[in-house]
């Protein structure tokens, strides 16, 4: 067994060219092999199977419209150029979005709302629009309504892309404080983005967070000695950082480069995790966890348990859904870390 490569994320400041940003708009490693066939809808939630079937037909079409769309959306055959997929966190929206990308004709792009706004920032709106207009499909994960400026800019982009004949599928990430219990309201969406009302069909997916089935809370934090044992038993590349140094470093790296920071990393080990009290710092950390989840990176930590990483006021505030999604993903990654550690112990016997 080869020795692990230990790196420190706080030492990494990657550079990414605009062209690399375009080329990088593909499903992340965790979703590089998913399909509609591998999606497992909850039998108790028929909206999940309906969403899968709708998107599967949508991906198979060379243009917009179709029989299923006509049935679902009151005869709007030929009008819907895109689908807006609404649902709580952990119901499989990203799985379905990536499945649509895989099944659709290429070229196509896949990225989060933030990755597309980063692209516009790097290229400028006109060049970003022109590049994306060459695509047959644009997939936008975690569409956010918490920044009016970004929302208007992305609304314009989506409208101009659909006018150019590009199909779009987006998933929602909305403010629960405005929309109630974390659920998306079509009327608010259409009021916010009125020009898209004739081009997009809203599909709601119900269900519970699949990541919490069998793992309702993050594992307890490790002792310092236990963390040392994890590091010693690691294989591949492990990123080890004092938590305070890591989150401080994030302010010096644009979020568009967080994914590049994590290239090749299979495991992270955080020392002395503490509750974040600054919302700007917390939101940058959320962006990092999103990229970690994309890459299915196992998490180990000392300090506080990971569900105490945000203050109660943050979780109850305007960015509630962002924090809840982050906690859900951290739970899954920490559970993966514990499973890895248990397997390593068995192999060592």
TrEMBL record:
Listed GO biological process terms: cell division
Q: Does the keyword Nucleotide-binding apply?
A: yes
Which InterPro entries does the UniProt record give?
ATPase_AFG1-like (IPR005654), P-loop_NTPase (IPR027417)
Q: Which keywords appear in this protein's UniProt record, sorted alphabetically?
A: ATP-binding, Cell cycle, Cell division, Nucleotide-binding
Q: What is this protein called?
A: Cell division protein ZapE
């Amino acid at each position: 067994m080869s020795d692990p490569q230990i790196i420190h994320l706080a030492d990494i400041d990657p550079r990414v060219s605009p062209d690399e940003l375009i080329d990088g708009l593909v499903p992340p490693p965790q979703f590089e092999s998913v399909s509609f066939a591998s999606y497992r809808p909850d039998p108790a939630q028929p909206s999940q199977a309906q969403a899968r079937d709708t998107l599967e037909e949508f991906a198979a079409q060379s243009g917009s419209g179709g029989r299923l769309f006509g049935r679902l959306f009151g005869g709007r055959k030929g009008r819907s150029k895109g689908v807006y997929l609404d649902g709580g966190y952990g119901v499989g929206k990203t799985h379905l979005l990536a499945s649509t990308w895989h099944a659709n004709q290429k070229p196509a792009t896949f990225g989060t709302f933030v990755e597309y706004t980063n692209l516009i920032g790097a290229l400028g709106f006109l060049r970003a629009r022109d590049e994306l207009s060459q695509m047959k499909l644009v997939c936008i994960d975690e569409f956010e309504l918490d920044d009016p400026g970004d929302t208007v800019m992305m609304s314009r982009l989506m409208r101009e892309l659909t006018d150019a004949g590009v199909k779009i599928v987006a998933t929602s990430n909305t403010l629960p404080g405005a929309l109630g219990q974390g659920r998306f309201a079509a009327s608010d969406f259409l009021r916010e983005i009125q020009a898209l009302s004739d081009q997009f069909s809203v599909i709601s997916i119900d269900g519970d967070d699949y990541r919490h089935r069998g793992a309702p809370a993050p594992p307890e934090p490790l002792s310092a000695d236990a963390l040392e044992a994890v590091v010693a038993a690691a294989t591949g590349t492990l990123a080890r950082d004092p938590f305070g140094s890591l989150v401080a470093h994030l302010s010096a790296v644009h979020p568009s480069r967080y994914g590049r920071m994590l290239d090749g990393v299979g495991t992270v080990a955080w020392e002395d995790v503490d509750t974040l009290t600054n919302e700007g710092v917390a939101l940058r950390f959320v962006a990092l966890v999103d990229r970690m989840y994309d890459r299915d990176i196992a998490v180990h930590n000392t300090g506080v348990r990971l569900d105490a990483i945000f203050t109660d006021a943050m979780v109850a505030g305007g960015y509630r859904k962002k924090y809840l999604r982050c906690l859900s993903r951290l739970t899954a990654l920490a559970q993966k870390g514990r499973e890895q550690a248990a397997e390593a112990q068995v192999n060592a016997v």
